[in-house]
Write a structure and sequence with these properties.
CATH architecture of the largest domain: Up-down Bundle
Helix content: over 70%
Number of domains: 2
Largest sheet: none
Number of strands: 0
CATH topology of the largest domain: Growth Hormone, Chain: A
Structural class: mainly alpha
Order of helices and strands: HHHHHHHHHHHH
Number of helices: 12
Oligomer: single chain
CATH superfamily of the largest domain: MFS general substrate transporter like domains
Shape: globular
Strand content: under 5%
Length: 271
């Protein structure tokens, strides 16, 4: 199935390039939009190819149906059976919780360099102050989750993650300032540590004892899928609106996440 997925990407290369050119020249779409639409369709086709291969493997009895059902479908069916309609709300939260952090993070190093910071400066601060604050944030997030509950810390982590993006917008206006860089990186890594600790605890609480490893792996993959896809267009966003508006925009992306956390928590309390 993985081979079918990869093969679909390889054999569609020429067709994808031609489709992008057609959309740009004849439909007059912006290059970025044309690329996004074509690549999204390409991904869907690759997923369909992998699915069809799965059916072929079962139909030819090269792979027992029971193995596919227990290994791949079992974790999904168990999750939806336990959470019902709320499962879709939970999956929406999982797929968007890290969206502000991931999209911003892709451009962080490029941003530092554009401000005039040396790579050695960036490395020392990121791996020094940044690492210390990440570890501290992780410890704080875990302790707070035990004391106040996972959902409250999850909400706090989401707020802090979005707010830290605003600090990058402030740094963009300040410019080359080592002290400001240290403060921004420290605050960003602290908030990321708190949010990550709370999110890991939340994902762990969603798994069942029968499919713990499979479900956690699936949740972790869903967690980064949408943010990573959108992060691929971070450079285009920066070129279009500039760094300040880009960071403000990524902070705003965290607002729907707060609403999802509230709704999921409300569902849990009702249950």
């Amino acid at each position: 199935m993985a081979g079918a997925f990869i093969l679909a990407f390889i054999i569609s290369t020429d067709l994808v390039d031609e489709s992008k050119s057609y959309l740009i020249k004849n439909i007059f779409l912006a290059p970025q939009l044309a690329s996004f639409l074509v690549e999204a369709l390409r991904l869907c086709v690759a997923i369909i190819a992998a699915t069809v291969m799965g059916y072929v493997l079962i139909a030819t009895k090269l792979v027992p149906k029971r193995v596919i059902t227990e290994t791949y479908l079992g974790p999904f069916s168990d999750f939806f059976r336990r959470y019902g309609k709320a499962a879709f709300l939970i999956l929406a939260l999982i797929s968007t919780y890290r969206i502000a952090d991931v999209i911003m993070g892709v451009m962080a190093n490029v941003f530092y360099i554009d401000l005039g910071f040396e790579k050695q400066e960036i490395g020392r601060i990121s791996k020094g102050f940044g690492l210390i604050m990440t570890l501290l944030g992780g410890f704080m997030g875990g302790a707070l989750a035990v004391r106040y509950g996972v959902m409250k810390v999850l909400m706090s982590g989401a707020i802090l993650a979005s707010a830290s993006n605003l600090l990058f917008a402030l740094l963009a206006s300040v410019g080359h300032d080592i002290t400001a860089l240290i403060l921004v990186i420290s605050a960003d890594n602290l908030s990321a540590g708190i949010a990550s600790a709370a999110f890991v605890a939340y994902l762990s609480s969603l798994t069942s004892t029968s499919f713990t490893a499979s479900q956690y792996a699936l949740f972790s993959s869903i967690m980064v899928l949408l943010p990573k896809i959108l992060a691929g267009y971070s450079g285009v966003m920066v070129e279009s609106v500039g760094y300040e508006m880009f960071f403000i925009g990524t902070a705003a992306m965290g607002i729907p996440v707060l609403a999802l956390i509230y709704l999921v928590d409300k569902q849990d309390q009702a249950a």
